[in-house]
Amino acid sequence: QFTVFLGSITMVGDRRRSSLFDFFLFSASLLCLCLAPITASAHRRKLRFGVDGEFKILQVADMHFANGATTRCLNVLPSQEAHCSDVNTTVFMSRVIAAEKPDLIVFTGDNIMGAGVKDAVKSLNAAFAPAIASKIPWVAILGNHDQESTLTRQELMNHIVKLPNTLSQVNPPEAAHYIDGFGNYNLQIHGAADSSLQNKSVLNLYLLDSGDYSSVPDMGLYDWVKTSQQFWFDRTSKRLQREYNAKPNPQQGMAPGLAYFHIPLPEFWSFDSKNATKGVRQEGTSSASTNSGFFTTMVARGDVKSVFVGHDHVNDFCGKLKGLNLCYGGGFGYHAYGKVGWERRARVVVADLNKERSGKWGDVKSIRTWKRLDDQHLSVVDAQLLWSNSANVSVVF
């Protein structure tokens, strides 16, 4: 598998050859550990804000990884067609990780294109290789195509949670007996070290399995976030609020949250390129035909400030509805369908902390986002403020 990658590095240009060769060698050596069980200490690893008062998340949506160098690209320029493959997806990821240096990488489903995959384990290992090589914590959820190869959704998550440096979970232990899907979990981002909030979660991430295809007759094509998952979300959100408000250092209100899943909510239909806050709509929203009410559930709780999805590759907008941002990641992978001349892209989200009078970092001040394009300069586009806890906040991009 990796000898194929190494032999195809020449396809992406002489000027990157040496660094990419080193990168793939490093990736290959790390992936020999892929089948070893993840240690308990890895799951207990605390995520926290840095000394600069920031926490940065890189969203990778829809890699559609298949079989490496033998997998051809879709919807690229004629000049790219002869030499474009899954390797281009891997190179893009290594470039954007190096440029952004995120604190967490979130893969939001369709990580592999199951229908074209010969061996799901090999494809998963290759798809996540740049994240593993970076040693940056990463997590993954599933889309609607991941399970179309040799592994079920449960088997896919069982494999993912064993990979190096991942904080992914199959399901939360307290809800494993009732929750639908595989890959529902919460990540807590603690305050900066040596601050009064270093032992409190000041930013909460909710990752959910939005399923694949509807199993209910006459209920459309795509699946949705089920009642059991919403129940778990509601209970988890309330528990996190109690902990946030509890001694020591009790805080007021709720810590802000972000939600990540694959299939967009029907409410994404509320926006087009004209009324979205940033970004474009270039295709319809392939949501479930039924509305499970998850948007209403999140609005009612009030802690989630932004939702991030994939699935519709050539939509990359954010729109705001009832105080909740609904954002597409934009298509990342070259084996995924795209639009000729429209660069593959990744979404970056940064949360910033308030500075207290003592000079130490406090709670979350703001959440902002932008996208990185896979062009020569890794261009940054559509920088915007998603949320702030003050009307007078000044945010610098």
Q: Brief overview, please?
A:
Helix 9 (227-245) packs parallel to helix 10 (294-301). It is built from ten helices and 13 strands.
What is the general shape? Answer: globular
- Supply Rg: 20 Å
Helices, by number, come to 10
Compute the average pLDDT. Answer: 90
Strand residues, percent: 15-25%
Task: Please report the total strand number as a whole number.
Answer: 13
Classify the helix fraction into a percent range.
10-25%
| Major pleated sheet | 7 strands, mixed
Query: How far apart are the termini?
Result: 40 Å
Please specify the SSE layout and strand pairing.
Blueprint: H1 2-8, H2 17-31, H3 40-43, E1 47-48, E2 54-60, H4 78-81, H5 86-100, E3 104-108, H6 120-127, H7 129-134, E4 138-141, H8 153-160, E5 185-190, E6 201-207, H9 227-245, E7 257-260, H10 294-301, E8 304-309, E9 318-321, E10 324-328, E11 345-355, E12 361-373, E13 380-388
Parallel strand pairs: 1-5, 2-3, 3-4, 6-7, 7-8, 8-10
Antiparallel strand pairs: 2-11, 5-6, 9-10, 11-12, 12-13
Helix pairs in contact: 9-10
